[in-house]
Amino acid sequence: MSEQSDPNSTPGNGQVGENDQDSVTVPNQSVDIAVAKTVNNSTPNVGDSVTFTITATNLTASTTATNVGLSDILPPGLTYQSNTASTGTYNSGTGVWSIASLNSGTPATLTITATVTTSGAKTNTAQLSALDQSDSNSTNNSGSATVTPSGVPPNLLLVKRITAINGEPVIRLEDGSNIPGDPNNVGTKAADDDDNIRWPDTFPRKESLRGVINSSTITPAVNLKPGDEVEYTIYFLNNGAASANNVSICDFVPANQTYIGTGYNSLTTADVGGLAGSNYGIAILSANGGTPVKATNVMDGDRGQFYSSSFPSACTGTTNGNGAVVVNMGSIPNATGPGTPANSYGFIRFKAKIN
Fold first, then answer.
1. CA atoms within 13 A on the CB side of 259
2. If I label 313, which of 38, 68, 107, 225 is the partner at 20 to 30 A Cα–Cα?
3. In whole angstroms, what is the distance from residue 176 CA to residue 187 CA?
4. HSE on the CB side for 305, CA within 13 Å?
């Protein structure tokens, strides 16, 4: 304001171009946030877990991006399990991954693990949703990954038998019964024992399901006593319509018995990855017509392990206090015929001594 008049302009009229007003423009900083997404298994089965990995990268040469937000909401048919973020936090309720600052050239990652609950294709998308700066390239602000689960889940049959006593094979085949009071009663699972379409061989399937359910049915009669050795076999068969993935089989050692950690030292072939010099208490067959291999009792690179306590998630139910045998079988394809493909069928064996 001035008490004198200005011959070149009218004070306070806000007219741009008159010489009593001027301005400068402060440019808004811009960054380029690139978003990418992958999934570890694009063709899972219903019931499987899948893990999505979202990567956010600041491609700008020198500017730090601040208050970065990415939206990632799981579509129907995927149920949230857990997440791990290299930086920032992920809210599974809102689906927002918040990053306070993202330096130039340093990628940030978020993994989201979910359970597949329904069949059909499902696309999971991560989208840039918040940013203090402007983004100079909007074409790379989102990333998607699609999973297409099988409509029919696998069906893994497990049948347990006594297959040897004191080193003598039990040569008969005994089917389960769902008759109360029957010594071979296994409940409604009895029908599974006799899937004569996909178990290897034809009835009576000699080696495929050899053994008895109850030692009292062996003839001539066997009277087990302390110090006697019993061999247990858990047969498995995937007779569903899809591959069974990430299969782990656990069996608790029966009450009043002690696991024999040297039970299969005499087998010729060891499972891949076993620790040299270890004892072998587990036998594994994972191919119809193949040869059983031996696995160690310790945590090493082979598929078997004996746990005395602190059991893995594969072990459910009540422990007898005598430990458990756990074998990680990986993927088991579904059988399309008797023992076909070969690794749709197999078994696990261990031995225990009567206390």
1. 23
2. 38
3. 8
4. 19
Scan for tokens 């499987």, then name that residue: 48
Domain residue ranges of the chain, discontinuous segments joined by +:
30-147, 156-354
SS3 261: coil
Of the chain, the percentage scoring pLDDT greater than 90 comes to 65
């306590």: which residue's tokens?
309
* CB-based burial, 10-20: b 16+ in 10 Å, e otherwise: eeeeeeeeeee
Closest C-alpha among 105, 96, 118, 112 to residue 145: 112
pLDDT (tens digit, 9 = 90+) per residue, 124-150? 999 999 999 999 999 999 999 999 987
Give the CATH fold of the 30-147 domain. Immunoglobulin-like (2.60.40)
Using the predicted structure, report yes or no on whether residue 109 has a pLDDT greater than 60. yes
Taking the chain, what is the end-to-end CA distance rounded to the nearest angstrom? 106
More confident residue, 117 or 87: 87
DSSP 45-104: BTT-EEEEEEEEEE--SSPPEEEEEEEE-PPTTEEEEEEEESSSEEETTTTEEEEEEE-B
Say yes or no to pLDDT of 204 above 50. Answer: no
CA distance linking residue 30 with residue 84, whole number of Å? 28
What 3-state class would DSSP assign to 35? strand
pTM (predicted TM-score)? 0.63
